[in-house]
Design goal:
single chain; 154 residues; mainly alpha; 5 helices; 2 strands
Length: 154
């Protein structure tokens, strides 16, 4: 028997573990936002006087220790655009397929839901720590001034 529609969202009063975890989550969010704000404020306060048009648009010089950040900005926009070109259609297709063609209790629905729930937590580790040697050595062949290229054998 399914619950009545007016009782779907009403729950009993929260217990102390729920309150404690809620407070811990709020405290974590407040600390993260505070530290991020502090870093952004320091960047603006100390970096804005040194910002110039040449720095924003100029090429990287001396292996990234001098010059500008123009190519880095272009590479970031290109990488983000290419990622979105692949991720958005795949995500929309998976969402449509899950909502229209699978049963909520089916094995495919449960597998995709679990993968989408747990994969974002592992992505920074796998892409940041495990894939960096590959990317650094690969891009060192294409762009010798790629950051970290001198640390890994090509």
């Amino acid at each position: 028997m399914s619950p009545r529609p007016d009782r779907l969202w009403k729950t009993s009063s929260p217990r102390w573990p729920d309150l404690a975890l809620g407070l811990l989550g709020a405290l974590s969010a407040a600390v993260t936002i505070g530290l991020t704000g502090w870093i952004v404020w320091d960047l603006i306060r100390l970096g804005l006087p040194h910002l110039s048009w040449h720095f924003v648009t100029g090429p990287v010089e001396s292996g990234g220790r001098a010059g500008g950040i123009g190519p880095v900005i272009v590479a970031t926009v290109m990488l983000t655009s290419l990622s979105l070109v692949g991720a958005v259609p795949a995500g929309v297709a998976a969402a449509l397929w899950l909502s229209e063609y699978t049963a909520p209790e089916g094995v495919w629905c449960r597998a995709i839901t679990a993968a989408s729930t747990y994969s974002p937590a592992s992505r920074p580790f796998s892409s940041g720590f495990l894939a960096w040697p590959f990317f650094a050595s690969f891009w060192a062949l294409v762009f010798p001034s790629f950051p970290g290229a001198s640390r890994w054998p090509a």
